[in-house]
Amino acid sequence: MESKAGISRCGFVAIIGAPNAGKSTLLNQLVGSKVAIVTHKVQTTRARIRGIAMEGDTQIVFVDTPGIFKPKRRLDRAMVEAAWGGAGDADLIILMVDMESGREEDLTRIVDGLKSQGRKAILVLNKVDACPREKLLKTAAALNETGIFTETFMISALKGDGVADLKKYIAGLMPPGPWHYPEDQAADVPLRSLAAEVTREKLFLRLHDELPYSLTVETESWEQKKDGSIRISQVIFVERDSQKKIALGKGGQTIKTVGQLAREELEEMLGCRVHLFLFVKVRENWSDDRERYREMGLDFPKE
Question: Which CA distances in Å does 79 have to 19, 64, 136, 194?
Answer without folding.
Answer: 11, 12, 29, 18
